[in-house]
Design goal:
mainly beta; five-stranded antiparallel sheet
């Protein structure tokens, strides 16, 4: 399964433990991760951590979509496959995983093919028609 939320997102939202606009939300670049919706932290994935980037300019869009600006990963190896995790960093060294992204908008693995910088622009699929968001945005990171 590709580009999915982890099960704990619904629970965190219901408890009020996930505040998309206020919490420290980051994109984690990892390798060799597979999706298991029951995972709760980065440590449970057994993935190779590569780097992280903040997801800035966040707000809740129509229909509970977690909106935000793209994440930029600098100096990333060319030609390798990556997965991106949206995570809540609580400062304990093992961020809570929220969403798993492993393919681009064409269904291909996430890779860098030309420059060494990887820019992840979240999906605009399933955006409600007539949605107007504050600029700049390229889409939503996860459904809250």
């Amino acid at each position: 399964m590709s580009n999915q939320n982890y099960d704990q997102v619904d629970t965190l939202v219901a408890e009020g433990s996930l505040k998309w606009e206020q919490d420290q939300i980051v994109a984690l670049l990892v390798q060799n991760a597979t999706f298991n919706r029951a995972h709760k932290t980065l440590g449970e994935l057994g993935a190779k951590y590569v780097t992280s980037a903040p997801i800035n300019g966040r707000w809740i869009g129509e229909g509970g979509m977690g909106m935000g600006q793209p994440a930029v990963f600098q100096k990333v190896n060319l030609g390798e496959e990556f997965q991106v995790l949206v995570a809540k960093d609580e400062g304990r060294g093992d961020p809570l995983v929220l969403a798993f992204l492993d393919v681009d908008n064409e269904g291909n693995p996430i890779t860098v093919v030309r420059t060494g910088s990887l820019i992840i622009r979240p999906s605009q699929e399933n955006m409600p028609s007539g949605t107007v968001e504050p600029p700049p945005t390229t889409g939503f990171w996860l459904k809250l």
